[in-house]
Amino acid sequence: xxxxxxxxxxxxxxxxxxxxxxxxxxxxxxxxxxxxxxxxxxxxxxxxxxxxxxxxxxxxxxxxxxxxxxxxxxxxxxxxxxxxxxxxxxxxxxxxxxxxxxxxxxxxxxxxxxxxxxxxxxxxxxxxxxxxxxxxxxxxxxxxxxxxxxxxxxxxxxxxxxxxxxxxxxxxxxxxxxxxxxxxxxxxxxxxxxxxxxxxxxxxxxxxxxxxxxxxxxxxxxxxxxxxxxxxxxxxxxxxxxxxxxxxxxxxxxxxxxxxxxxxxxxxxxxxxxxxxxxxxxxxxxxxxxxxxxxxxxxxxxxxxxxxxxxxxxxxxxxxxxxxxxxxxxxxxxxxxxxxxxxxxxxxxxxxxx
Length: 354
Fold this sequence. Notes:
Blueprint: E1 6-11, H1 16-25, E2 29-35, H2 39-49, E3 52-54, H3 57-62, E4 68-71, H4 78-87, E5 91-94, H5 102-115, E6 119-121, H6 129-139, E7 146-154, H7 159-163, H8 172-175, H9 179-183, H10 185-195, E8 198-206, E9 217-224, E10 229-235, E11 245-250, E12 253-258, E13 261-266, H11 271-285, H12 306-320, H13 332-347, E14 351-352
Parallel strand pairs: 1-2, 1-4, 2-3, 4-5, 5-6, 7-10
Antiparallel strand pairs: 7-11, 8-9, 8-14, 9-10, 11-12, 12-13
Helix pairs in contact: 1-12, 4-5, 6-10, 10-13
């Protein structure tokens, strides 16, 4: 007999709408409840998925039939909501970033350890087959000593994205920043996961094309513990928006990703062997036909189903009593990097980490 599905609730129905969609499609999961302060959002999701809804978070915490709570509220409220859910006996999947300060992330980690419940953070790029292959290639030493790690997040958001009623994006307290903390955070997480910890940053930021509290353009130089140097730029002011780009190069080769794989060239025994490996990698991971929308210009366009993979991993983690693939501990350094870049820009000097 198959195991009963685990019962999920989603709290926060902005980005949480994507969570509802993926829970509904995930193996071993069932969406039983949704929660948001806006009644119209609740009504729309209950009609779409046949679940119950509420505007009262306390009802979610008290419900005995909810196993997992997906937190998709403003970033600066993640710790509050996550800790409450963990202490109510629920497992938690929390949207990125885990929180806007390292201290708040630490409070989430402490609550998870105290309760023994599972806590997963949404960073769906880690589930991408291309990036998993890239990480293994780096760990196997095939690129040799890493030399450079270079990422650009050149996206675009209309002013209306920041000013619609109830919007918290682009604020320091609830978003933790602007283009770097919100749009760029996936890439910050990706580069530290792929290439190891960052030990020093030097950053600059400014507001150029929006009326917002935080930044819409950030530039940073990074030094990695392995000696590699990196550059990172993020913006929501590049019209009409471009796909995120990542280049990693080492002594023995270069890998370039942008909307899929663009280059995979690692020194081999012969030029022909190098070219054949690249051909195989391009066949597996190369750019394909893109959907009409892209997150570079549309915050609700998703080219992959990474959330679904994370939901299914949480189901298996609970059933097998193991850690989920992306723990809060593994994302703490991501927030540390964000905070350090902003601090560097404010102080006008490099900031050491760790």
